[in-house]
Here is the input.
Amino acid sequence: GLEIHYDGDLPGKSGTGSSSSFTVGLLNALYAYKGEQLEPRRLAEEAINIEQNIIGETVGSQDQIAAAYGGLNHIKFEGNSFEVIPIILNNERLKAIQSRVMLFFTGISRYAEKVAKTYVENIETREKQLKVMFQMVDDGVEIMTKGEIDDFGFLLNEAWQKKKELSKEVSTSEINHIYDEAISCGALGGKVSGAGGGGFMFFFVPIDKQELLRKRLSNLIHVPFNFGKSGSDIIFDEKL
Here is the structure.
């Protein structure tokens, strides 16, 4: 007597966290069906447990937390625990950041788990790169809250160069070509979303350079988006 229908605005296997969003959303809906309302932390923890332990996938924990909490957050991990610290920005600064971000779909599908396995299995050999990338998180928060906004784009570029050092599977000649085209059009930096290998590419681009970039990457799908303020939400419940 129970039917579950799923509709997605973005394709799976594209680095946008669609699988974790599905897991969090399904949990939220099933608990609501039982008359229970879970707080974001519980939703995130249960989704992480399903993906990592029950299904046994080699995936991270940030996507589940992002889907459960929503908004712009600084997520800190320590062991199996995590802390979610909201990044508070005034409307003017939030709009300034949002106006500089662009998302393009490469059309390349890949399984995040397969890409992640190529660097997780020998993670100790990437300690140098990971430490640099870890420090970039604090740098990114500092820039977003009170730094020169365009510096966030330059930081993204540095982070992407380090991420490519984790595994040869993170990027491809096609992805490198797209990235180089974007930089030549004026993008300050960017990255492949998710584990890498395909899916969506995210760029930080000055407003006056965006039309040129859209034309240069006209063979790709440009997907405009806004930052969401809330995570997984029950939008209709006939029992309410």
Observations:
- Residues 66 and 231 are 7 Å apart (CA to CA).
- Strands lie at 73-78, 81-86, 101-105, 189-192, 200-204, 221-222.
- The longest strand covers residues 73-78.
